[in-house]
# Entry
Amino acid sequence: MASIFEPFRIKSVEPLTFTTREQRVQLLKEAKNNVFLIKAEHVLIDLLTDSGTSAMSAQQWAGMMVGDESYAGAKSYFRFQEKVHQITGFKNIIPTHQGRAAEKIIFTLLGGKGKTFVSNTFFDTTRGNIEFSGAEALDFLTEEGKIPHHIADFKGNIDTKALEEYIQKRGAENIPMCVMTITNNSGGGQPVSLQNIRETAAICKKYQILFFIDACRFAENAYFIKQREKGYENKSILEISQEIFSLADGCTMSAKKDALVNIGGFLAMNDDKLALESKNLLIITEGFPTYGGLAGRDLEAIAQGLEEVLDEEYLKYRIGSIQYMGEKLKAAGVPLILPTGGHAVYLDAKNFLPHIPASELPGIALTNALYIEGGIRGVEIGSLMFGKYDENGNHIAPPMELVRLAIPRRVYTQSHLDFVCDTAIKVYQQKENYKGYKITYESPLLRHFTAHMEAL
Ligand code: F0G
# Structure
């Protein structure tokens, strides 16, 4: 295991708060055994998400000071617009306050009853915005992408054969758009190959279906292409990114990921008419088209972040950190999704705690054990998040019980990550000690955020 070399030194620090094991047992109980309900100040290492949790650079903070806060035509908008245009090549670039705001606009315009949107895998908010419009959202991930222990280079790829068959069956006129999520967050942060993007773009072109990229983690995906796809070893991350976007008609982006900022996003596209309609919706929901729900300073920070994220030393450290954790955990026999993806380590709770059945929430048992033993906060992606009930009230489990440990960008050092691995290994070695949970309160929608649970 090569050590991680953080390609930065630290100028401004934020202290961590320490708690004892006894305190954490009590805090978790008070939070109804749901880590979403714990105060962040009671978390030592927070791996709930990589979204909006990046550390900004000195250059980004400097940008915050020179942000132009003019309502219309601010200088900061044009710096942002130029940077996004350089990377994506799209003609129309529309800022939004985060990724889902861009999704809301585009799917309000293109969605509606009787429409179907297709993807390698839609992220929750994307699917949510499509379904809210009355349309349906279907995933066409390749079979290999669905097998946690299967080793392959591009487990985020779409199944182009299944996609084309579906288009022919459903009728292209009912499918307004295909979305390629890079990297595929819901599938473990797995990358999509340029060949797969190219083939999908060709299918969409043939049937006149719009092809959009969900670009949240585009730079991480480009780095994997450089590492793993033949013909790209000597291309820069910028060149690879440009090639990806050149194959698409537009994109949605949460700048809270690969733009290395705490808030922001955008919608971009080539079609002028669709862009005009998007801007009209933007004005009534987000703001004037040159700020779209953001301050000028946010636009400056995004522009600078988009430059920094293309740096290969940064991406080597970024992807390397996740790989390092994966190797360390694997060496200790801890079950996890392999190969590791771009932004998170996904523990396989089903095999980690085989004595806890899906109906007793093994992912929650593991999430809570990591908090109790180390003050680490991860997120369950399993029976609590996606489980359903049949007509008799019996639990229907999703295919996988996972715990995601998402790594914020440039925030934690190798020793922090070592501590996370050591804690996970300790929990694994004494796994028989942990018990399942039952739900005592749940909301009808997105229950994992607010559920109350009780240890069995
Ligand atoms: N698309 C993908 C692939 C995402 O991962 C996210 C957010 C969004 C869209 C929505 O962006 O949060 O800016 O509105 N993912 C976060 C996560 C929340 O924790 O994975 P947003």
About this structure: The chain has two domains: 21-50+311-455, 58-308.
